[in-house]
Amino acid sequence: MLTLFLERNRISARGKMKKLITILSVFVLMIGSQNLLLAKNTPQEEKNMQIVKLFINEGLNKGNMKLADKIYASNYKHYWNGVIDEERVGPDVAKYLINFVQETYDYYKATIVDIFAKEDKVTVLCTSKGNLKRSGQKVSYSSALIFRFENGKMVEGWIMIDYLGIYKQLGYTLTPPAWAQKKEK
After folding, report:
1. Average pLDDT, the chain
2. Which among 28, 38, 113, 158 could disulfide-bond with 146, CB atoms 3.0 to 4.6 Å apart, if both were Cys?
3. Residue 91, CA distances (Å) to 31, 77, 140, 151, 170 in order
4. Helices marked H in the chain — which ranges?
5. Which residues pair with residue 110 across a beta bridge?
6. In which element (H, E) is residue 137 found?
7. pLDDT, mean of residues 155-173
8. Sign (positive/negative) of CA torsion 139, 127, 93, 159?
9. Neighbours of 102 (CB within 10 A)
């Protein structure tokens, strides 16, 4: 059919090849995109995403500490902006985080912007906003969270928070080190 189209339109051999490559490229892109859109999560991936949503909505937003023991493995390890938390392990990490939110904010709300799962990991992009108890100041920031699961419980987690954005909202300024400042003559 494609050959008939090309012959009817009297396209040169070189032109036929270009048309064929273009048409095949579009076809491959369409098929690839369709597969991405139709890709479904496994039941375990769906369950893991529900656990993360539960932690954010019930744990962080509502202060439910009881969740920690149900969804965190006893050997859970946590990384704050890439640095391992060596003081806390297991459900104590979640309890610390929930307690920190409750003590720091008069009002706090984390909203899931995007969430997806692949095999044993769940990745979440959140926006958070709250009123700081000490200053009454409102802050909002983005964070990315990644959790790894084993046997239906979180065993490892990473949280990356936009601290620079928070500090700027609080009035802090960033001063470059001496070596980075221009010397005027």
Report:
1. 85
2. 158
3. 44, 9, 26, 15, 31
4. 2-8, 13-38, 43-54, 67-71, 91-104, 163-169
5. 128
6. none
7. 94
8. negative
9. 14
With tokens 């200053």, the residue in question is 135
Query: The tokens of 163 are what?
Result: 């601290």
Pairing of strands 138-150, 121-132: antiparallel
* Angle (nearest 5°) at CA 66 between 61 and 72: 90
Residue 37 CB-half CA count within 13 A: 6
- Indicate the class that CATH gives domain 43-169: alpha beta
3-state secondary structure of 82: coil
Which ranges of 55-123 does DSSP label H, i.e. alpha helix?
67-71, 91-104
Q: How far apart are CA 60 and CA 98, in angstroms?
A: 5
Alpha-carbon torsion 12, 14, 16, 22, what sign? negative
Give the integer Cα–Cα distance in Å for 38 and 134.
48
Structure tokens at 16: 């036929």
Q: Give residue 178's pLDDT band: very low, low, confident or very high (50, 70, 90).
A: confident
* pLDDT at position 179 over 70: yes
Q: Alpha-carbon distance 121 to 157, whole Å?
A: 9
- The first and second tokens of residue 73, run together, are 């493995």
How far does Cα 30 stand from its chain's mean position? Answer: 27
Q: What is the pLDDT of residues 130-144, one digit of tens each?
A: 999 999 999 999 999
Structure tokens at 58: 């019930």
